Amino acid sequence: MIQSMTGFGKVTAELPSKKVTVEVKALNSKQLDLSTRIPGIYKDKEMAVRSLLLQEVERGKVDFSIFIEYIGKDTPTQINLAAIESYYNQIKDVSEKLNIPVPADWFTTLLRLPEAIKSDIAEVDESEWELVMKTIKEAIKHLKEFRLQEGAMLQKLFEQKIGNIASLLDRIGEFDAERIEKIKTRISESIAKLNGVEIDNNRFEQEMIYYIEKLDVNEEKNRLDNHLKYFISTMNNGHGQGKKLGFIAQEIGREINTLGSKSNHAEMQQIVVQMKDELEQIKEQVLNVL
Fold first, then answer.
1. Residues of the chain with CATH 3.30.230
2. Phi, psi of 287 (to 5 degrees)
3. What's the mean pLDDT in 124-150?
4. Which residue of 67, 212, 242, 275 is most buried, as measured by CB atoms within 10 A?
5. From CA 22, how far away is CA 135, in angstroms rounded?
6. Cα separation, 137 vs 121, whole angstroms
7. What is the overall mean pLDDT for the chain?
8. Does the keyword Ubl conjugation apply (predicted)?
9. Distance CA 65, CA 68 (A)
10. CB 18 within 8 A of CB 256
11. Rounded distance, CA 263 to CA 255, Å?
12. Helical packing angle, 126-192 and 201-214, nearest 10°
């Protein structure tokens, strides 16, 4: 079964002094485009996290985040009183010297300045990191389960659209013989209107056969049928088939276009337009396949 590149996973772990929440989101992308947001306390573990994501997520635009919520009064983040007092005095001096109004909201202004907040980052013990890593793996598992669910819906859509194209292809056969006869009749009637022109019937018959062969669409119909079956079998081979399905969709499009250019028949051209509409929906959604 195919998987979607779109997915979401979120898991929260409770430690004695804090809650750690891991979120991983994925959207479609040609390659793996990985963005991580990791608190300073776990920064030295970032390479291990990225390595795990590279291995498990495979492809897509991935946003990975770890959030920490401290429980109780103890927190490693504190207001830097000395820095804020210095900023406060400097701003007042500048205000007086340049005749500029002081800020209306002192706290908002001062807390946004560099070094206004200081963080005492302690080393993470192995038992805490094992729990965090377990939480990360669980969030990735949820992401992959989400991708499977989305993939199942995409697979149903593709099966429906491929089936629709196959049904339309069968309808083309209904008009093929009628189309050839109409073309023969139209050419014969045009020749008959050429008064005083001597026609070599043998040569005319040869040219007619050559022209009809050029308009024959049996090869295109067979190739299109094979591409449709190949799309389904590739889809059933498992995940990681997104790029391949995209290539097959392009080949399907080429055969449909050739059918349209060779049909020379109103009803057949209408069917080709319907085929193109079904294929366009496939192409649009195949970009989301992992």
1. 7-73+124-148
2. -65, -20
3. 93
4. 275
5. 7
6. 24
7. 85
8. no
9. 10
10. no
11. 12
12. 160
Contacts of 203-212 with C-beta under 8 Å, sequence gap 24+, read 208/184, 211/183, 211/187, 212/180, 212/183, 212/184
pLDDT for 131: 93
User: How many residues in the chain?
Assistant: 290
7-73+124-148 — its CATH code?
A: 3.30.230
HSE of 84, CA atoms in CB hemisphere, 13 A: 14
- Exposure on the CB side of residue 250, measured as CA atoms within 13 A: 7
Residue 92 burial by CB count (10 A; 0-12/13-18/19+): exposed, middle or buried? exposed
3 state SS for the chain: CCCECCEEEEEEEECCCEEEEEEEEEECCCCEEEEEECCHHHHHHHHHHHHHHHHHHCCEEEEEEEEEEECCCCCCEEECHHHHHHHHHHHHHHHHHHCCCCCCCHHHHHHCCCCCEEECCCCCCHHHHHHHHHHHHHHHHHHHHHHHHHHHHHHHHHHHHHHHHHHHHHHHHHHHHHHHHHHHHHHHHHHHCCCCCCCCHHHHHHHHHHHHHHCCCHHHHHHHHHHHHHHHHHHCCCCCCHHHHHHHHHHHHHHHHHHHHHHCCHHHHHHHHHHHHHHHHHHHHHCCEC
Instruction: State how far the Cα of 145 lies from the Cα of 129, in Å rounded to an integer.
Output: 24
State pTM to two decimals: 0.73
Give the Cβ contact number of residue 157 at 10 Å.
14
Hey, what's the torsion of the CAs at 44, 47, 52, 58, to 10 degrees? Answer: 150
Choose between 174 and 190: higher pLDDT: 174
- Position 80 pLDDT exceeds 80: no
